[in-house]
Amino acid sequence: MARKIALITGATSGIGEGCARRFAQGGYNLIITGRNTGKLEILKQELEEEGVQVLALAFDVRNREAARKAVDYIPETWRNIDVLINNAGLARGLEPEYEGDFDDWDQMIDTNIKGLLTMTRLIVPGMVERNRGHVINIGSVAGDAAYAGGNVYCATKSAVKAITDGLRIDVAHTRVRVTNIKPGLVETNFSNIRFHGDTQRADNVYRGIEPLTGDDIADVAFYAACAPEHVQIAEVLVLATHQASGTVIHRD
Ligand code: NDP
Ligand code: 8X3
């Protein structure tokens, strides 16, 4: 049987990179995307050496025209995308809402909400037409309840929940499945980006707890994708064992 195709946004790091490896290992060919062309190329080479076919598309999900061009560039043999993993995203800052940075807000809203919507709008029509496919959005526990300083980031992840639920309703007449995965603390580059490269502050986020890894979330995404076709894993909250909720964390 031909290998299925997964398109993963933000495959250059963390959860997206974990998904790339997990889906490759699980028999998928991959369309990997991100802005970092160097990292995309390294991952592509690594996976190709393992016999996986990989198409690397470098673009910024905030740039709708660039996203459209990249999707238009996908060759015919790659167009029947089975799984779209909308993972590209980030948090910026942890300031109180009344002191937040406008540029940080724009970057989170433009990436986490508008970028995810752009990719959905570009890829899902093909799935609806083929009457098969799976959209896996990476939301967050942060979308369930706001936490101190989380304001706009939490709002973007609440939006991911609403957008995911909305899509599930809109494709309910098809065999397209829609999943929202909501991780808790996952040790990736996420906190370095959030704190603008302050590694000490970033490390402190995972102090005294064994956090999740990108691979843990990739396993959950792959599980959802592998469920029998009549089974739709609608939403999954995945927490580290010592994290009870967005704000309750037991640290040693
Ligand atoms: P990383 O910083 O390790 O990875 C983020 C990925 O997103 C990178 O591959 C980056 O690629 C990509 N990305 C960011 N901005 C853009 C953009 N404008 N255009 C294209 N790609 C972009 O963080 P994580 O792996 O942790 O984050 C992945 C997702 O998981 C995010 O949506 C995040 O909100 C979510 N999440 C993370 C949690 C955590 O604790 N780490 C918990 C819950 C959810 P590049 O730089 O090459 O563009
Ligand atoms: C990432 C998890 O709790 O740092 O979405 O916001 S958290």
UniProtKB/TrEMBL annotation:
Gene3D superfamilies: NAD(P)-binding Rossmann-like Domain. GO terms for molecular function: oxidoreductase activity, acting on the CH-OH group of donors, NAD or NADP as acceptor. Keywords: Oxidoreductase. It comes from the Bacteria. Pfam families: adh_short. The keyword Magnesium does not apply. This is SDR family oxidoreductase. It comes from Segatella copri. The lineage of its organism: Bacteria, Pseudomonadati, Bacteroidota, Bacteroidia, Bacteroidales.
